[in-house]
Amino acid sequence: MNLKPKPGILDITPYVGGRAEAPDGAPAVKLSSNESALGPSPLAVAAYEEACRDLSFYPDGNARILRDALAELHHLDPDRIVCGNGSDELLSLLARIYASAGDEVVFTEHAFLVYRIAALANSAVPVAVPETDLRADVDRILASITPRTRMVYLANPNNPTGSCLSGAEVRQLHAGLPPSVLLVIDAAYEEYVQRKDYEAGDVLVTQFDNVVMTRTFSKIYGLAGLRVGWAFCPASVADALNRVRGPFNVSVPAQRAAVAALRDREHVARSIAHNETWKGWLIRSIRTSTLRVDDSEGNFVLVHFPPGAHDAKAADAFLTARGYILRPVANYGLPHCLRLTIGSEDANRGVAATIADFMRQKQ
Ligand SMILES: *Cc1c(COP(=O)(O)O)cnc(C)c1O
Fold first, then answer.
1. Ligand 1 site, residue 36, Cβ cutoff 6 A
2. Gap between the Cα atoms of 258 and 40, Å rounded
3. Could you tell me where in the chain the CATH 3.90.1150.10 domains are found?
């Protein structure tokens, strides 16, 4: 065959989302994709339904209403905000803009898989830097920088580990990078973070022209199905993104529902409170079953299973057979773990009881 994809494309392992149902198609509780336990604001749903009347019209390609609402809420310059079809689109476009064939794109060992895909899709070289205790290590990241490095992706907090760097650590990372390297801070879980020393990255973006922060409506706002994300950028990066993105990359219903979701601060507060209560409860409960569960700054926890009869594979099969779908994370280099999204009260109680049953079971 003469038709050949660019170098790197066939090295991509396609991204596989969390399963939604048990293999036999039986209804199941989906705790595999870090979706919101409470779902979207009713105001967002109403705005979406209302938008059905205008489906014959193209969206505003500049997503003006959404950028203005984001700028107002977060006190940012709307001209430096670029909206995307999920933050995944923006993360990929940044690699398309800044990475050429043979350039190096750095991320950490257990980082979000989209970064590797973005690098390979542009024939760049993915560089996975070892973590320390399942946490990004600033010194190790800086030690991996070479003259070929163009970008560093940092998920903060990281998925699937739930670990997080302090604002001071992120600033230290940035300070050690050459000005020609773009630091992309993916703050998809920002709203869930409780640590007082955390900084999302927007202040760094206002101070330096080689830092971008990406955010999403897929997590706390419960709009994963609509596909809306945004990036806060230096002016030159916003300009480049606006040249390469699809001209109408955020649909009419997506823009309107996202604006309505932003305005419902009570719903956001409820979602944060639910997450805090049940994340703490799940961690304590699963630790009672003698399993290691790491602290997490997101809406999910990483559960470690021992080798042998009670390993992660057996746990996944046991839980799936009982209607609880978690996320195996072997493809993240974590074959002994399952990632569990914080769900509704019923889901949390049910999955904790089922994990306890699994650990009591003799095999
Ligand atoms: C869920 C998630 C996103 C969000 O992706 P969208 O394309 O906005 O749905 C981005 N980064 C990380 C680390 C995530 O876990």
1. no
2. 10
3. 12-39+266-360
Q: Give the chain's radius of gyration (CA, Å).
A: 21
Q: Are 145 and 103 in contact (CB under 8 A)?
A: no
227 and 38 in contact (C-beta within 8 Å)?
A: no
Please give the pLDDT value at position 16: 86
337 close to 329: Cβ distance less than 8 angstroms: yes
pTM over 0.90: yes
Mean pLDDT by 10 residues, the chain (363 residues): 90 87 80 97 98 97 98 98 98 98 97 96 97 98 98 98 98 98 98 97 97 98 98 98 98 98 98 98 97 98 96 97 96 97 98 97 74
Angle of CA points 202, 153, 61, to nearest 5°: 60
* 12-39+266-360 classified as CATH 3.90.1150.10: yes
CATH number given to 42-263: 3.40.640.10
Measured by CA distance, the residue closest to atom 3 of ligand 1 is 188
For the chain, percent helix, then strand, then coil, each to nearest 5? 40, 15, 40
Could you give the residue range(s) of every CATH 3.40.640.10 domain in the chain? 42-263
Closest CA relative to residue 109, chosen from 155, 149, 145, 150: 155
Contacts of 200 (CB under 8 A, 6+ apart): 185, 187, 190, 213, 215
Atom of ligand 1 minimally distant from the CA of 157: 13
Which residue's CA lies nearest to atom 14 of ligand 1? Answer: 188
Closest CA relative to residue 210, chosen from 324, 48, 50, 94: 94
192 close to 205: Cβ distance less than 8 angstroms: no
As a whole number of Å, the end-to-end CA separation of the chain is 51
For the record, the structure tokens of 130 come out as 């070892």
